[in-house]
Amino acid sequence: QVQLVESGGGLVQAGGSLRLSCAASGRNFSRYAMGWFREAPGKEREFVAAISRSGGSTYYADSVKGRFTISRDNAKNTVYMQMNSLKPEDTAVYYCAAKYTVNSGTYYDTPSGYDYWGQGTQVTVSS
After folding, report:
1. Exposure letters 19-38 (e unless 16+ CB within 10 A, then b)
2. How far is CA 104 from the centre of its chain?
3. DSSP character at residue 16
4. Predicted confidence pLDDT, tens digits, the chain (127 residues)
5. 3-state SS string over 18-78?
6. Among 36, 51, 53, 102, which is most exposed with the fewest C-beta within 10 angstroms?
7. For 21-54, how does the pLDDT look when each residue is reduced to its tens digit (9 = 90+)?
8. CB 10: neighbour CB atoms within 10 A?
9. Element (H, E) at 90
């Protein structure tokens, strides 16, 4: 089992940057594929980015491709998401998620693919 705690959210102007972190406690972090999702008011939770347990494979939603970068440091039990060129439509609560997998190159892009979730961190982008 793993517990996830997100941090790094905040208020930023359009065009600015933020880096989200998700710290995991528990054993065997390197055996979990990780993902970031977001949920805006009145909308369903949507996929943002995912990374395989080795970090060798990444996948992004079209809406963030080229602006966001997901990465992980298995020695620190942490996954990151660097968000650049932020837009007002990026405003949402951002959640990280973990999925135990035996496949080193696998990632998941749907909420149902994940077993564990953090509590979320608010990102607000002003115009």
Report:
1. ebbbbbeeeebebbbbbbbb
2. 18
3. -
4. 899 999 999 999 999 999 999 999 988 999 999 999 999 999 999 999 999 999 999 999 999 999 999 999 999 999 999 999 999 999 999 999 999 988 878 888 999 989 999 999 999 999 9
5. EEEEEEEECCCHHHEEEEEEEECCCCCCEEEEEECCCCCCEEECCCCCCCEEEEEECCCCE
6. 102
7. 999 998 899 999 999 999 999 999 999 999 999 9
8. 13
9. none
1, burial (CB in 10 Å: exposed 0-12, middle 13-18, buried 19+): exposed
Query: Tokens 């620190």 belong to which residue?
Result: 76
Chain-centroid distance, C-alpha 93: 11
Tokens read off for 72 = 């992980």
